[in-house]
Amino acid sequence: MNPSVTQLEAQQAELAGLLDGLDDIAWELPSPCEGWSVADVVLHLAQTNEMAIGSATGRFEETLERLTAGVGPVGDVDEGAALMVEHERGRPHAELRARWRAGSDELVAVLGAADPHQRVTWVAGTLSIRTLTTTRLAETWIHAGDVARALGRTLEATDRLQQIARLAWRTLPYAFERAGRSLHGSVAFELIGPGGERWDFAPDERASTVIRGEAVELCLVAARRIDPSQTSLDGEGPDADAVLELVRTYA
To answer: In the chain, count of helices (H) and strands (E)?
Structure first.
């Protein structure tokens, strides 16, 4: 099985552990996602997991049409996600958890059986099954952190962050293009993992910009959960500030 699928399964299990036994009050606690409760965060994950299943099985457009029925036209991806949640908000919490759990299990099975090099349709265009898997890992990690914060808990950083940091590094060209800006050269990340290990992501040629620091901080910046100024991340080169401003791990 693709190692990223195993990591996604582990990340889903961590979130499941947070959700087990929650009462109705806890489900409605506000999360770090502005305007979203814990229930809203889980609904968003259920919806986007279903989109990923549709992508991996050649039914992306059909699935998206089902999830957006009655939502109306949207301006961008973020607005679309917000409207999808608003459209389905208010379902019973037990039903919501069961929907997320079933979708999570199906997603792992579908991705695990697929060719990791297969190209599929996704929100931002086409990508490989391997990249789709890492994208789902990143989003599940981000929102597991949101749920944990809402519940007053802290999640331990794990080696799963290595794949998330690599995704952030590989998708920098997309992040800059989405913002209508251009890179002045290649970028390298020199990061420190949770156990003190070195995680380097670098192009074949010498990088003109280098970002250094803790991997967990880089991943949180890419998740838009912390401002770069609140971290110890450091950069040098013509694009250092722009990289920390624009880096992201999601479409």
So the answer is: 11, 6
